[in-house]
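**User:** Once you have settled down, spend some time on the protein underneath, comparing sequence with structure tokens, and judge whether sequence predicts the tokens.
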Amino acid sequence: MKNKAIYIVVLLCLLCSCRHLNQVPADGQGDTLRMKYAEHITIVRCEGYTKVVMQNPWKAGEVLHTYELVPRGSERAARERESGTTVVSVPLRRSVVFNTAHAWLTITLGALTQVRGVADLRFMQLPAVRQRVQAGLTADCGDAMSPNIEQIIDIGADAILLSPFENSGGYGRLEKLGIPLIECADYMETSALGRAEWMKFYGMLFGKEREADSLFHVVDSSYQVLKARAAQCGTEGAKAPRLITEKLTGSTWYVPGGRSSVGRLIADANGSYPWADDKHSGSLALPFETVFDKAGDADVWLFNDFSDQPMTYQRLAAEYRGYPLMKAFRKRRVWYVNSLKVPYFEEVSFRPDWLLLDYIRMLHPELGLGEPKYYKKL
């Protein structure tokens, strides 16, 4: 049950403390960094610091968190501690990362040596991180839901990167440590590219701003080329293939909202999503009957699995009696990714172009783009 609970948290993160909204910057002039896709983060360069305002994705018009990134050792860091914002000295040197996607990003940006602790190590398909833990260079800080506080203190962490959740009730003992908590709400962006664009903020945290900007340019360019290629599929008047994602977790089917990054990704892959008209950017918790009534006729069905056992139609049918009624099941157009063995959650958050290519491959095999990178056909 504990593994399943952690899996749900990670899944809701792919699918997917408040104050009134402030004007930024509030204490002086600055240059706003133009974000091309991200909607929930504003970055303003001011004299001597950078102000970052994260909008609350669950409460319109409110702020989730405000940060001031200051050069390490600067006078402003000491002078502004009572300003009502969280002051973060950058670049980070001894950070703790709770989410596997952010850990992967530090590797890609060349900042892994600045990560001195990770949580949920057993769910990270990252050899570089595991090697550092084995060598004693990075500490295993336990489960993200109940981290080892003493270990974090021993590390001398200068920031903790974690994912916020609606109505979570706060972070318990972590909030009392006096260590900046970086609330990584990127997963609540309404587009895959919007989420990926948060890498610009993370690059600033680790002193890898140029590397982050370059990487995002590559991701954006690749994504646009693939989107244009998918748009050419099909004949005029033909219906796009209908796609449904995920499956039951217990008695609940967590369906990506229509304005979620997954919902928009399906549209960019020239697929038809049953919940495309939904206005939620997070996920919807639905019973099987509701999902079947709306999407039982989907042409393609794909989901994440987290198991040591290979997924088969026999095993899928044994999980729930209603699955064999799905059109995709009957037509044998079901795909799955085993996130226990494939670095899916690690990579796709900040490489949505790779995920888009997989979706296009599954929806439009006629393009001849090869086999999916992450998904496997049952």
DSSP finds 14 helices and 20 strands in the chain. The first strand starts at residue 19 and ends at 20. The chain has a mean pLDDT of 90. Residues 250 and 339 are 18 Å apart (CA to CA).
